Amino acid sequence: MPAEIMDNITIAPKSASLASPKLTKAKASTTTMPSLSLSVSYGCEHIQEIFKQLRKVSLREYALIQTSIHDRHSVISQTLRSPQVASSGRPVPCLTPTYLCLQCPSVNTPEQRDDHWKSKSHAFCPKKRKYDDITSNEDPRLVAANTQFVPCRAIGLRGLYNMGQTCFMSVVLQSLIHNPFIKAFYLGEGHKSSTCEREKEGCTSCALDEIFTEFHSKEITEGYGAVYMLLGSWMGAQALAGYQQQDAHEYMQFILNSLHLSNGGDSISSSNSNSNPEQCTCIIHKTFYGQLQSTVTCDKCRNVTNTFDPFIDLSLDLRSQVKKRKLDGELKDKDIAMELKECLERFTGKEKLAAADYTCQSCSKTAQNATKQLSIRRLPPVLSIHLKRFEHAKTATKLNTKLSFPIHLDMHPYTTAVLAPKQVAKDRAIPSPHPPSTTYELSSVIVHKGNLDSGHYVGYCKEGGDWFLFDDSKVVLVEEREVLKADAYLLFYVVREFDGAREP
């Protein structure tokens, strides 16, 4: 299948992958409105057929309403349930118009409507309109002048301009833009720039909200300049200021922490900081937060000590795995790629601790040999995996080891339930901290090309059923096999089944 470049060609994705656009924060258009005929089609092309089918039903219902209005007495006693007599359940007659709240099922008199607005700030219809008003020739022009057409194909497929070695930022932002949980949060008005107190301080969450608005409200294929995100990153981290190439993993850690602080999270250095990350309700913790369990067993008395550590991403060491395969004589053929499961098995494998590194409390606090093992106690909805390809010792080097990774990843063998079942048995009273499924599906891949001095970042993201390559402002439709052959640096897996009601 030939690649289609988004800078020049508009790609029409499959209808199944179309996402609902964001309908708010439409900027005022500076272009002149074209002349409109009296016949205006409301909505997108997908619901025009529904409007045609409902036209006859609507006309019939309207005729019945007109008949009822003309046949009945002009003074009609309306009823509503007043809060003062709610206990009795009796309706209260009212000769004045009643008003239905647009945000809750409350029916109010004019006086109650005003009180309802003051207490809850809920909206009511501002005025009654005659039938002639809503069928006048001015109505279509009024609607057209105050609305903006939002195509259903605006699904966020846009590149980001390189503003001076900012490819490290672009690939991380693309992974967030196509993250289903982050997308649902921002398209659902999870962060409102109009009420954000950090907007003037270079808020990265406001900048990301603007990116989602631009990407999902206009069907534009040229790139987008994330200037406010770049400025917010510079203001948030002095090390990022300037036009030097940065590490994508380090930027990912920065932007996740910045979004955490911008969406209700506490700073670690703050006096009001919550020491328990599980209690943080920000979108970043809900999406990326996981927990590791470290189990240390004394070789002498078999005493077990467990500690728990939060994580946002798993950092897997490639160099130690390469050394292990060399010792085992498995690297005779250089074309044989290492597998991701090998790195995960080594990450959760048993490790011997020397007596100098461990003091057993049960052995009279004496130094003892011990065995340490890591396991995943809590799996996050989105699992991010960092592959350590860069080593900064005496000289900085990059490890170009080939690593194969699957589209579907089963994390069950690396959980505490499998590796430390006795501990799980003790904690049966505690609800399972895992999502209902431990099977994950690949969502995004970040690749570093070249060497440390003159490298470049590109990213692969899945939108609907298709994979796309994001290379700065260029967006190319690619096949799945190209993604699986990439030299991955960061991997993002999304859990296949998720029940938001299940919290640890």
Automatic annotation (TrEMBL):
Q: Where in the cell is it found?
A: Nucleus
Q: Which GO terms describe its cellular component?
A: nucleus
Entry EC number(s): 3.4.19.12
Is the keyword Nucleotide-binding in the record?
A: no
> Broadest EC class?
hydrolase
Among the Pfam families in the record, one is UCH
So what does this thing catalyse?
Thiol-dependent hydrolysis of ester, thioester, amide, peptide and isopeptide bonds formed by the C-terminal Gly of ubiquitin (a 76-residue protein attached to proteins as an intracellular targeting signal)
PANTHER family in the record: UBIQUITIN CARBOXYL-TERMINAL HYDROLASE, UBIQUITIN CARBOXYL-TERMINAL HYDROLASE 22
What name appears for this protein in its UniProt entry?
Ubiquitin carboxyl-terminal hydrolase
**Which source organism?**
Patellaria atrata CBS 101060
